[in-house]
Design a protein that fits this description.
Structural class: mainly alpha
Keywords: Membrane, Transmembrane, Transmembrane helix
Largest sheet: none
Shape: elongated
Strand content: under 5%
Number of helices: 6
Order of helices and strands: HHHHHH
Helix content: over 70%
Number of strands: 0
Length: about 180
């Protein structure tokens, strides 16, 4: 893969890391001081906000490790926390719409933000995962991993079906069993 595209994909993920870390540092202390008595605000106050802040910090740290070490397994904690928090926010919005009615002005702003942020985060993390899967910068095994061509089996079959080519070549080819 082109090195500029590789850097761009990793840059997008780093921007997600920096923005999330900024939000955790700025918003979590403010949310921890709020006493949430209503069920719809339980996520946004007290010990629950602190627990989510710590969970977000761990997820951001894992995503940063994933970017630095190019290990796709460390992307999944961030995706899990993002999905959990997103589902809690969506359930909260449905609850508020049912109990208090639809506030068109506020709902429009929330939908606009969700339409911009959610696809950006998921697309960036998916691209990062594909980058680490399809084009790893170093091999997964230390004994020297070699990529083989997909058409390798057809080359072996052609040598077995043509006896004239094997008569001129003194080497014997191994027999490959196919199921």
């Amino acid at each position: 893969m082109d090195k500029y595209l590789r850097h761009f994909i990793k840059y997008q993920a780093l921007m997600i890391v920096m923005f999330t870390l900024l939000m955790v540092i700025v918003v979590t202390p403010a949310m921890s001081e709020v006493n949430a008595h209503e069920i719809e605000n339980l996520r946004f106050g007290g010990p629950v906000a602190i627990a989510f802040g710590i969970t977000w910090a761990i997820a951001v740290f894992c995503l940063f490790i994933a970017i630095q070490k190019e290990d796709k397994r460390f992307i999944f904690p961030y995706v899990a926390v993002f999905g959990l928090d997103l589902s809690l926010l969506v359930l909260r919005e449905f609850y508020l719409m049912i109990m208090h009615g639809i506030f068109v002005e506020i709902l429009t702003i929330k939908i606009l933000i969700a339409v911009l942020i959610v696809p950006y985060v998921f697309a960036s993390l998916f691209a990062l995962h594909r980058l680490f899967t399809v084009d790893p910068i170093e091999s997964q095994r230390s004994e020297g991993f070699v990529r083989f061509d997909r058409n390798e089996t057809t080359v072996v079959e052609e040598h077995h079906t043509n006896p004239a080519s094997s008569a001129t070549n003194n080497t014997t080819l191994p027999i490959v069993a196919y199921s």
